[in-house]
Specification:
Helix content is 44%, strand content 13%. By secondary structure, it is an alpha/beta fold. Bound molecules: pyridoxal-5'-phosphate.
Length: 314
Amino acid sequence: MKISQRVAGVEYAIRDITLSAKKLEKQGQKITYLNIGDPVAYGFQPPENVKDALIKAIKNNQNYYAPSEGIQELRQAIAEKEKRKGLLTTEDDIIVTNGVSEGLEMLMASIVEPGDEVLIPGPYYPPYASYVRLFGGIPVEFGVDLNNSTPDLDDVKSKITSKTVAICFISPNNPTGAVFSEKSLKDLIDIAIKNDLYIICDEIYDQIVFDEKFVGIGKVSGDSPVILLNGFSKVHLMSGWRIGYIAFNDSKKLDILRENVPKLARVRIASNLPVQYAALESLRGPQDYIPKFVSELKKTKRLCHQTNKRNAWT
Ligand SMILES: Cc1ncc(COP(=O)(O)O)c(C=O)c1O
């Protein structure tokens, strides 16, 4: 019987590898899973007030389908957060999704036609390439100098063709940890504007920075066509609850997307309603758990670096 080549080409190596690991485990081998970076699986938890908000929503019978774009209170709280970071957005420009992953899929579905090219900073978080490929597009990696987190602007310019439709910024980045400076963001935006590209910006690690300074895209984007992706899996320690969002910047060039992306949100009905109340609490409630969590991660980072150095010497 027929299958779609689109899906046959999809891969996500860091999760796909568990299929082989499970086979070895069945044969009695001991496996230590280091493939997924998920602090929530290793001792970090959402704060009690956030857990309570989830339980309270369930007990208050908020177990029905949510509005497709998300509940109004949460969209408002998200818009306030992103406005504080500088983005020109409003609650009507927010779509709540089942994680950044779903938002990314909706965006690529709305932008990419077969043969279209999308620029991604390398080395990249794999789903960016997978979703571009799923819709028939071609992911094109641009270089970033990892010694100083600086994108190679000449490389970006040289890789833009008549088929390029969008450029992605992921800052802070997974897997490299690169954090783009205000100047780098501005330079990339200038290139994107000159070439009429959508700017897709992933800020899921916006509050998880160590020695670098995080600058939100909103600080420099003005009214350029920026679509921001963000979520609650990392900073808010809610990875297993699957919640994130898309935020549109106030740009006329995004008007068609503003109409089309919600169509996809309606087709998949809605994201999880009780979790939306927990996300609301995580934005409105005390924020002191975030610096504590980041400082614990910093200790782990130091330990990894020390171990790495020791291993390099022996
Ligand atoms: C850069 C980046 N974006 C998105 C995601 C996935 O986000 P979510 O859990 O909201 O789908 C990850 C997860 O590792 C990530 O590193």
